[in-house]
Amino acid sequence: MGEIKGKKASGKKEHHLWKSRDSAQSGQKALTLVRIVCKLPNEKEAVYGALDKWTAWEIEFPLIAVAKALKILRKRGQWVRVIQVAKWMLSKGQGATMGTYDTLLLAFDMDQRVDEAESLWNMVIHAHMRSVSKRLFSRMISLYDHHNMPDKIVEVFADMEELRVKPDEDTVRRVARAFRELGEEEKRKLVIKRYGLKWKYIHFNGERVRVRTEAWEDNESAN
Q1: Tens digit of pLDDT for each residue in 159-217?
Q2: Segment Disordered: which positions (predicted)?
Q3: pLDDT: is 147 or 2 the higher one?
Q4: Half-sphere exposure of 134 (CA within 13 A, CB side)
Q5: Terminal C-alpha separation, the chain
Q6: Measured on CA atoms in the order 104, 109, 110, 112, is the torsion positive or negative?
């Protein structure tokens, strides 16, 4: 029995070491990818060519390493490089997840590429209609809000309602503001009544105070 227990413990240890080593390798690969793309000219052919060369000797597509590289580039605010790497990955038929789409929409937003964001959004909403995440809806509404496009906010919100996706508090605020800008006061009030929280915390005179939603609504009307 003692030998069996010892073998089990040894097996667990080896498995743990293998996972740690694999994680470290993907981290190093991610850093290498980041270094490569950041030295390249801003040309699609140059970037795609270098990334193809980076994966030339890989048996399987290094999806984890690419995902980590995108996180690094996102943290550094390298939005053009985020877009290039994400598009390259998708062109290889890899990483087509809600997380990738979210990162790409954020990068399009930050790089002022609204048209490309809309093209991606239309593809996602038609191909994955029933599985589009709340986060992705919120991201698109946030993008339209940043670029002062209230009519587009309302369109995305209509899809949310049709698919029964409940908006978060920030999205409710953006949608309510969009309806106000469009002169749709009754719809603005309806959105707040239907989705707004009963209580909201605000900071007043340096303290955190709980107020009713109606008070927040009145404040929104005054702004």
Answers
A1: 999 999 999 988 999 999 999 999 999 999 999 889 876 556 566 666 766 666 554 45
A2: 1-23
A3: 147
A4: 9
A5: 74
A6: positive
- CB neighbours (10 Å) of residue 20? 10
Interacting residues of 103 by C-beta distance below 8 A, sequence separation 6+: 70, 74, 82, 86
Q: What pLDDT does 200 receive?
A: 62
- Residue 154 near residue 178 (C-beta atoms within 8 A): yes
Distance between CA atoms of residues 53 and 34, nearest Å: 14
Please give the single-letter amino acid code of residue 172: V
> CATH number of the domain at 97-223, please?
1.25.40.10
Cβ–Cβ under 8 Å, residues 196 and 213:
yes
Cα separations in angstroms, 188 against 145, 153, 183, 220: 15, 13, 9, 10
Mind listing the pLDDT tens digit for each residue in 152-163? 999 999 999 999
Separation CA 141–CA 145 (nearest Å): 6
- Residue positions counted in the chain: 223
Strand, helix or coil at 57? coil
SS (H, E, C) 153-209: HHHHHHHHHHCCCCCCHHHHHHHHHHHHHCCCHHHHHHHHHHHCCCEEEEEECCEEE
- Nearest in space to 143 (alpha carbons), one of 158, 162, 121: 121
